[in-house]
Structure formats: structure tokens, C-alpha cells
Amino acid sequence: MADTEPLPEAPGEETVVVSPATKENLSVPPASWLPIPLGLVASLVSKLIYVDLVAPSFGIDSGWAFNNGILLFSCVLYVVLLSISSLLLYPAGWRPRIDCTLAAGTSLTLGTMFLLIGGILCWPFMILLWLMVTIVWGKYSLAPWRVGIWMGVGGVVIVAMANVLFHLLL
Fold this sequence. Notes:
- By secondary structure, the chain is mostly helical.
- The protein has one domain (35-169).
- Helix content is 69%, strand content 5%.
- The protein has helices at 28-31, 35-57, 64-67, 69-89, 95-118, 123-137, 144-169, and strands spanning 5-6, 17-18, 26-27, 141-142.
- A two-stranded antiparallel ribbon has the order 1-2. A two-stranded antiparallel sheet has the order 3-4.
- The protein is globular, with a radius of gyration of 18 Å.
- The relative contact order is 0.18.
């Protein structure tokens, strides 16, 4: 037990022992706000520039890719913004940043495919999944890949909600 140190106790909580190898772990509550602004910014930028700049530059003028392109481009922007913000979440070392970004990208891709195939009927299941992950994992100090999964599922929910919001407002 010489290579472990206890975390400070909060009133009414038990002591959690963390080994030095896992010091890059992050608890969900400090990062719990992060998917919301990232998803809103990604959706707003996507709504503003996709039809005029992105779609014409790739030769997309009609069809499935044009109709769902704003959602897909929002997801790409979300992953880019998350990889930039991982510099704040994990200030030391590249490995935790890469783990977080890859896990977020994977869960965001799977969740977006779930939404595109199932439509708006699948969205409540994504919200419930995000709430479940937040409630269950919110008590623990999480490894970077788990934070990435949590941020990816949250990103799907926020990006879809923000795309609907900006479609109605703009």
C-alpha cells in the first residue's frame, strides 16, 4: 500500500484509494458542463456554414448527405472541439487526451448512427443512456476512455437537440 494515497474525504463519503498510475483519472462532475457548450457551438457553426461553404466545396448538392449533413458536420466539429478541450481536462500527457478523444468519437459515431437509422424515436433512449451513465459513473473517478464515452453520448444528445433548436431559430 506504499504506492497508493487516499483522496480527501467529503462529509459522509468513504475514502477512495487511487494508485499513482491512475492520477489522470477525472471525475464526471467537474466536466459535466462540457458537452453542452461544445454541442451548442458545434451545431451553431455547422448550421451557419454547412449549406453555403462545406457542402459546395465537397460537391454535395442534394440527397442523403445534404439532408443529414448538418448533423454529421456538427458531430465532426464536436469531436474537434472536444479534442481541443481535452488540453484543459488532461494537462499532462498525450495518452489520456487520445483515449478520451477516441472514446468520445467512437461513442458519438455509434450514437449518431443510431439516431440516423432510428430517427427521432431513438433520441429518448440516448437521453436515458446519458442520464444513466451520469448517475452511475458520477460517483467515481473515471479513466479517460470512460470520460470520452460519457462525453460522446452527451454530445449526441446535445448536438441533436441543438440542431433542432437552431433549425427552428435560424
